[in-house]
Amino acid sequence: MVLFNVSRKDTTPFDGQKPGTSGLRKKVKVFIQPNYLENFVQASFNALTAEKVRGATLVVSGDGRYYSKEAIQIITKMSAANGVRRVWIGQNGLLSTPAVSGVIRERVGPDGSKATGGFILTASHNPGGPNEDFGIKYNMENGGPAPEGLTNKIYDYTTTIKEYFISEDLPDVDISTTGVTNFTGPEGPFDVEVFDSASDYVKLMKSIFDFESLRKLLSSPKFTFCYDALHGVGGAYAKRIFVDELGAQESSLLNCTPKEDFGGGHPDPNLTYAKELVARMGLGKSESQGEPPEFGAAADGDADRNMILGKRFFVTPSDSVAIIAANAVEAIPYFSAGLKGVARSMPTSAALDVVAKSLNLKFFEVPTGWKFFGNLMDAGLCSVCGEESFGTGSDHIREKDGIWAVLAWLSILAYKNKDKTEDKLVTVEDIVRQHWATYGRHYYTRYDYENVDAGAAKELMAYLVKLQSTLSEVNQIIKGIRSDVSNVAHADEFEYKDSVDGSISSHQGIRYLFEDGSRLIFRLSGTGSEGATIRLYIEQYEKDPAKIGRLSQDALAPLVEVALKLSKMQEFTGRSAPTVIT
């Protein structure tokens, strides 16, 4: 038993320590300033109140990015000093964001303890390294992100903080080896348990999916598979699940060694940054080497996002969540009793809406931010949800879950192929095209204008709001741009009243909703660290079976032209083209 003392350290507030829905994200050089991390952690403890902190069991882990190991030691020593009873750490400091949520909700410690919350160390899909990004967020006892009420309190404390508490003489814990280390301090016993990063998550996935049918699919000579972790924490789970449990070849795993700098890459699972996977799946600009696999998937840094690919075929995230919802009851044992409801973020395409209406399911449209889904799930109103930014999940946890989405797609493939006697496999592309034939197709794209002058971005948004006051003028402008585009039936600034807690979220995006089901959405995004990011979402709904096989850029061209000219995008921003198109 190692003894330790508590020190009170003087400090002063920092500017800009306001956590958003994804926590606090800054450059590493900001976090390594003296007392910067300490201020935020102490502010979190203060906001939670001493009653909730004393005797608590906290999870402290993350995606393994640069500065994580040092941060874990600091948070552990501050936890001890603030009266926390025990800290749980994933081996080598690694736990995916969905795994942390699962551990908080499900894990029981050797002494029967249950977690009461946790600090997740991640900047999600942002790059890592000494000159890149670091992040921290607090998750609650339900496994979900801290609500706005708590994050606002944390911020208020960071603006007035004068001291923090830390046990400096507590030795650093060896996080590379599993086991429990016992300490004693002024508050009494304090334990640190380092546990296997993957075991609890694998157990959870096996309780949701039929691993036997998945093994049968992956062992089929007709089926080939590829998974790219982009050197994020998803690699800590990939071999255990896909190779050890499901029998995939180890050669089917790409970039599955977690690295502090994500191998120098950008751990964002999309067609731009997952270059190696995209090329292997036959979607690169040059000819692929050999025949592409039947199925491919990628994860982001903390493994909560996913990208799904078929052979030479990209599945949009909006289509992905709709297809999972349409097939969940038949294909995934966890949902065999039926879905409670489904939900999507407002900018996500309305593909899920059509499924919900057809299957007579409760449906919710919420602002961007996973906490809104969490409220619905805690109230038993939602089973499957998703967002257009490559996030998909269900009520098994309170975060989006990239590997869950991959296993959901593999389950649908296994179900569609289980009684097949002929040689031809039902492919990812087959499933998507059949879905379009049944429900119609939502052609969809997103234009991101990054690091735009903040003043110019606000002026553009204000102009679009003002324009909405007279729809007849809007439709006149549109007809002058493209006569083949439908009239706008409704326009507003999206506002959401939470059906569970009654809270109201205003100014969540500017919507132009067309008579034919098409939509234009304009949003300012809070994920960038410099300037403003304008996101433009363009969606064209097509029910005619003869028109669902067009190239997206062709189908969307008229609406794109309307969106750019109606908004005066170039005039306000000075940009002739977006930074990224997805």
UniProtKB/TrEMBL annotation:
PANTHER family according to UniProt: PHOSPHOGLUCOMUTASE, PHOSPHOHEXOMUTASE FAMILY MEMBER
Q: Which cofactor does it need?
A: Mg(2+)
Q: Where is this region: Disordered?
A: 1-21
**What name goes with this protein?**
phosphoglucomutase (alpha-D-glucose-1,6-bisphosphate-dependent)
Q: Which Pfam family, any one of them, does this sequence belong to?
A: PGM_PMM_II
User: Which family would the database say this protein is a member of?
Assistant: Belongs to the phosphohexose mutase family.
- Subunit comment: Monomer.
Give GO terms for biological process.
glucose metabolic process
Sorted alphabetically, the Gene Ontology cellular component annotations on this record are:
cytosol
- Reaction(s) the record says it catalyses: O-phospho-L-seryl-[protein] + alpha-D-glucose 1-phosphate = alpha-D-glucose 1,6-bisphosphate + L-seryl-[protein]; alpha-D-glucose 1,6-bisphosphate + L-seryl-[protein] = O-phospho-L-seryl-[protein] + alpha-D-glucose 6-phosphate; alpha-D-glucose 1-phosphate = alpha-D-glucose 6-phosphate
The EC number of this protein is 5.4.2.2
Which InterPro entries does the protein's record reference?
A: A-D-PHexomutase_a/b/a-I, A-D-PHexomutase_a/b/a-I/II/III, A-D-PHexomutase_a/b/a-II, A-D-PHexomutase_a/b/a-III, A-D-PHexomutase_C_sf, A-D-PHexomutase_CS, Alpha-D-phosphohexomutase_SF, PGM
Q: List, for all copies, the residue spans of the domain called Alpha-D-phosphohexomutase alpha/beta/alpha.
A: 17-164, 200-309, 318-419
Summarizing the function annotation, the protein's role is: Catalyzes the reversible isomerization of alpha-D-glucose 1-phosphate to alpha-D-glucose 6-phosphate. The mechanism proceeds via the intermediate compound alpha-D-glucose 1,6-bisphosphate. This enzyme participates in both the breakdown and synthesis of glucose.
Q: Which UniProt keywords apply?
A: Carbohydrate metabolism, Glucose metabolism, Isomerase, Magnesium, Metal-binding, Phosphoprotein
**What GO molecular function terms would the record report?**
magnesium ion binding; phosphoglucomutase activity
Q: What class of enzyme is it?
A: isomerase
Q: What broad taxonomic lineage does this protein's source fall under?
A: Eukaryota, Viridiplantae, Streptophyta, Embryophyta, Tracheophyta
Coiled-coil annotation reads none
